[in-house]
């Protein structure tokens, strides 16, 4: 049979490939003509077909259904919308029990014993399966429990080992703590001991040094005191502090009085000499020769004496003043003394005059 | 809605108390929806089915991923006792797997369970305590329990609950007190535990001694132990049950770390029973006994007494267990130590 799709004949020479995929205008024209020809053919065929004759006058052709059952014919096709959806996750229901409905005739029959089957023989495999399944289930459960029990026993043994190790660790910790505390205590003790030793040596050293230092203390102290004059003979001191000053003051006073007497005497002599001078100046001129020698003597003596008295006067005047001030205190004594002094002063003045006369 | 069942009478081997389980991955989400339903029967049936499913760890993982725990938390406070019982049972089985434990911690189920401690139904309380016990074995779980302030409640419950639950409480306490003991000491747990040491049941005695051991691992606990409990523990060393002996020896081990503990143990004459424990070859308490004697040997009187018994320790050096050998060596070295 000829099938266009199957290539027959020599295929080597057949290399008919269209030059272009698009049909050429020539081909388009050919197709158009072919279509026209087909249409014309169809029209011709329609005209040839026999048709029903036209209705007679006064009558009409009506379409009539001649079937057994009438049908409603309409242009519009009856459409009915139906949906269908599968149920999500619909489970397979358990197999329903199939008890078929009873049909047919009832017939009775009787089965005698031993006719059908031997129960014991037949039941054996069923029983085996049943018992086997039960026992298997039971074994599984027992195994599960046994496994658990073994696990717990294993765990308990492990727990014991672990506890033993833990106890060992804690014991060693405790031991370590005790050793450490003991060490600390001993160290502290040792430190205290060392410290005490150090203190004792320091104390000994300090004591020795202090002793040596203080050995010299008492003699040096006494030396210093003695040099400072704290050890004194009281009688000597008494004499020094009281008696001798008193003695000196008394001596001073006596000397003052003597000086006072002398000054008084000097003043007396002075006044006397002045008076005598006056007197002698007023005397006749016969006495003038003696008088001038005497005057000269007296004037020599007088200025000397005056000089002496002047010189003695001034301190004596001062002393007189002091004497007078002192004399007010001890008037009686002074007066007697003054008299004595004046006597002495007089004698001494005479001596000085003598000396002056000797000199002159 | 049409049911999948054709006949009204059920076949004989379907459990009517359980909800039908959907296939594969759909099982757990469907059960979760059923839990939300307002009908009590549906909820109960869903819980029963869930209870069976949860034995498989993969289901546990899936359940936690889906977010079952929130539903279960709300159901914990349901008014019906069956619902509560089944919920606690489910949580208990979940807590047996590590995935479940982690999930319980992350969803804060422990604080929700505190309400159930006073539940009138015994089984609910028992399951609750079982959950606590399981959770306490994990460190984060123990921390959670401490943070929820459960310790005082548990200590208080010790006095009122029946024996089985007491054992569970003691287990919980021992595991959680390993982390921190101050709360328990504040509520005077030591006094209650001291009473339990003389209880008739062996399990309770050993567990109470174990709790005292855990209290003793902390410093403040040691002080309380030394003062009050050492004589009772020494008397327990001569108990007939090896478990009790092991726990008592362990508790003494920690009590004698402090010097006061050592003195009170010596005063209570702990050395002879401990030596007996060390001499026996196949006993669990050997390690703890050796350790306790090591502690006591640090005291001069103890050392004097133990110098006569060094050969017992020499025997221990032949024990197959590595830890016992080590402990015996340390004990011998401590006994022979002379102050320099």
TrEMBL record, chain A:
Keyword Glycoprotein among UniProt keywords: no
Keyword annotations of the record: Cell projection, Cilium, Coiled coil, Cytoplasm, Cytoskeleton, Flagellum, Phosphoprotein
Region of interest: Disordered: 283-360
Cellular component terms (Gene Ontology): cilium
InterPro entries, A to Z: Radial_spoke_3 (IPR009290)
Signal sequence coordinates: none
Segments forming a coiled coil: 162-189
Keyword Phosphoprotein: yes
Subcellular location(s) of the protein: Cytoplasm, Cytoskeleton, Flagellum axoneme
Pfam family for this entry, one: Radial_spoke_3
Family: Belongs to the flagellar radial spoke RSP3 family.
Protein name: Radial spoke head 3
Taxonomic source organism: Athene cunicularia
């Amino acid at each position: 049979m000829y099938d266009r799709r199957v290539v027959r004949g020599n295929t080597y020479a057949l290399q008919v490939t269209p030059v272009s995929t698009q049909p050429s205008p020539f081909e388009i024209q050919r197709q158009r003509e072919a279509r026209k020809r087909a249409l014309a053919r169809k029209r011709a065929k329609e005209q040839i077909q026999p048709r029903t004759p036209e209705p007679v006058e006064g009558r009409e052709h009506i379409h009539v259904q001649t079937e057994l059952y009438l049908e409603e014919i309409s242009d519009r096709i009856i459409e009915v919308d139906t949906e269908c959806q599968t149920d999500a996750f619909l489970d397979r229901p358990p197999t329903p029990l199939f008890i078929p409905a009873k049909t047919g005739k009832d017939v009775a029959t009787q089965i005698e014993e031993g006719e059908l089957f031997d129960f014991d023989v037949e039941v054996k495999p069923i029983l085996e399966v049943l018992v086997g399944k039960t026992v298997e289930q039971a074994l599984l459960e027992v195994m599960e429990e046994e496994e658990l029990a073994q696990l717990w026993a294993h765990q308990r043994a492990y727990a014991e080992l672990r506890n033993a190790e833990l106890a060992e660790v804690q014991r060693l910790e405790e031991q370590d703590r005790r050793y450490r505390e003991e060490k600390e205590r001993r160290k502290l003790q040792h430190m205290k001991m060392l410290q005490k030793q150090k203190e004792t040596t320091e104390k000994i050293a300090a004591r020795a040094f202090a002793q040596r230092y203080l050995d010299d203390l008492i003699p040096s102290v006494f030396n210093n005191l003695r040099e400072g004059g704290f050890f004194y003979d009281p009688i000597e001191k008494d004499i020094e502090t009281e008696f001798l000053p008193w003695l000196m003051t008394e001596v001073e006073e006596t000397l003052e009085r003597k000086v006072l007497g002398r000054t008084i005497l000097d003043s007396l002599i002075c006044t006397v000499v002045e008076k005598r001078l006056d007197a002698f100046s007023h005397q006749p001129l016969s006495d003038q020769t003696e008088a001038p020698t005497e005057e000269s003597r007296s004037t020599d003596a007088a200025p000397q004496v005056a000089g002496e008295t002047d010189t003695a006067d001034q301190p004596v005047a001062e002393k007189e003043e002091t004497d007078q001030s002192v004399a007010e205190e001890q008037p009686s004594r002074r007066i007697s003394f003054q008299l004595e002094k004046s006597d002495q002063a007089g004698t001494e003045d005479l001596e000085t005059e003598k000396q002056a006369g000797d000199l002159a | 809605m049409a049911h999948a069942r054709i006949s009204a009478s059920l076949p004989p081997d379907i459990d009517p108390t359980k909800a039908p389980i959907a296939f594969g991955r759909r099982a757990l989400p469907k059960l979760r929806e059923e839990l939300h339903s307002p009908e009590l029967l549906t909820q109960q049936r869903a819980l029963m089915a869930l209870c069976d499913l949860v034995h498989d760890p993969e289901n546990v993982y899936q359940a936690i991923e889906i977010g079952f725990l929130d539903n279960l938390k709300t159901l914990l406070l349901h008014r019906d006792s069956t619902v509560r019982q089944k919920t606690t049972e489910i949580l208990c089985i979940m807590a047996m797997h590590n995935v479940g434990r982690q999930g319980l911690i992350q969803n804060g189920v422990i604080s929700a369970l505190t309400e159930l401690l006073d539940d009138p139904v015994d089984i609910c309380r028992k399951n609750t305590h079982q959950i606590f016990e399981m959770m306490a074995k994990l460190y984060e779980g123990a921390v959670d329990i401490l943070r929820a302030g459960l310790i005082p409640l548990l200590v208080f419950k010790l006095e009122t609950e029946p024996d089985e639950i007491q054992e569970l409480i003691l287990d919980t306490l021992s595991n959680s007190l390993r982390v921190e003991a101050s709360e328990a000491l504040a509520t005077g747990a030591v006094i209650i535990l001291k009473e339990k040491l003389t209880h008739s049941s062996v399990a309770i005695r050993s567990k109470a001694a174990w709790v005292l051991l855990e209290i003793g691992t902390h410093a403040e606990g040691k002080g309380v132990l030394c003062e009050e409990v050492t004589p009772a523990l020494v008397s327990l060393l001569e108990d007939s049950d090896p478990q009790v002996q092991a726990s008592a020896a362990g508790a003494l081990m920690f009590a004698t770390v402090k010097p006061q503990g050592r003195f009170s143990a010596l005063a209570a004459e702990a050395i002879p029973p401990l030596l007996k424990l060390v001499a026996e070859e196949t006993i669990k308490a050997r390690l703890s006994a050796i350790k306790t004697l090591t502690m006591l040997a640090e005291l001069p009187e103890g050392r004097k007494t133990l110098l006569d018994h060094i050969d017992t320790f020499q025997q221990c050096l032949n024990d197959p267990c590595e830890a016992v050998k080590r402990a015996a060596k340390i004990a011998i070295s401590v006994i022979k130590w002379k102050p320099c």
